[in-house]
Structure formats: structure tokens, C-alpha cells
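Late entry, evening session. Most of the bench is empty. Finally got around to the prediction I had been postponing all week. Sequence below, unchanged from the version circulated by S.P.
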Amino acid sequence: MKKTLTFLFINFIFVMTLSAQTITISSVPGTVEEFITLRNQQATTPEGGAALFMLALKIYNDYPELGQQCLVLSVDKNLLWEGDVYKGYSLSKSDISLIDRQFAGNNKIADAYIKGGNPENSYSVKLPYVYEFTNNAYSGDKSHGEFKVFVKCYGADSPRPINMRKNDKGIWKAASWSSILVGVKVPPASDDL
């Protein structure tokens, strides 16, 4: 009976996961213009848009001013507020506050989604950054302009969802991402004294 349940569960997981895709980022943009160029190349799919959002989080963690601009450029316009971060827009104060609180608790959250970063190596990552995505039967229909992808997290036991929305220029942007900011496993304590 236990083998049958295990087999059914594995088959259920297999059926639920329809496709997997990786997005590779070879270099980190150093300017807004470079980020826009990369976004316009990569964000033509929900996975590409999600990768650029994940990269924007990484940039924000490392270079907050540029990162805020990149976040504005990778988030659905319906979630933006009037502000002075980029061309009259900014993220809501509550969204930035949530990101800041979560990063203050663990500044390795953004690194936990990059292949190679894990608790055992204190989420040490290096270029190229590789993000792994899956979707399932409930992800939606890309032709309707809304789609949910799941990004692999090397600091958690399961992938985490990002809802993506396509704008009128065909660029996919993050529409909901709160699960991405949930904490990750803490690296083991060092024995160095």
C-alpha cells in the first residue's frame, strides 16, 4: 500500500509539472539602460520576466538605488505608485518596506534562487546566474497575458510562485511575488573561532 501511494504521489507531481526552463544571466547590468536592454531581450516569456525580477531583487540587495529602479522596471505598472525612483514611478512604500524587512532578516534571500547558492556554502553565488522555473496545469494560459511560474529556491524545500503579467509591449512583469520574500534556510554556523 505504501509503495502504491508513493507511486501515485510521484505520478501526481510529474503530471502537475508540465515544463521546466532555465534562464541564464551572464552579467549584472550596471546601469538602468543596461537593465532595460536585458529585460527587453529576456522578458518576452513569463520565465524571462520572472528572472529579471529576481535579478532586480539581487541588484537591490547589492546596490539599493539601482535596484529600486530595476524593480520598478520589472513590476507590473498597476502595482507602481507615483514617485521619484524612475520616470515618475516607484514601488509602493509597503512593497519596499516588505523587501527591506525580509532582507534585514536574511540578506541572502535573493542569492537562494540562483543555482549554486545554498545554505552549505552560505549562498555564495557567481556569474553566470542561472534561475530554474517550472509551471503546472494551474499556471494559466500565456495567451491571456497572465501566467504563474515557480522559481526553484535552493534555501527551501519547494519552488516558490511568481504571478506574471504581460504588458502592451509584450514584456512580462511581476504582478505578485510575496512568496519569493519568505525566509530561506540559515547557513550552518561556522566552527571557526
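Two things to note before I forget:
Residues 46-62 form the longest helix (17 residues).
The chain has one domain: 20-176.
Will write this up properly tomorrow.
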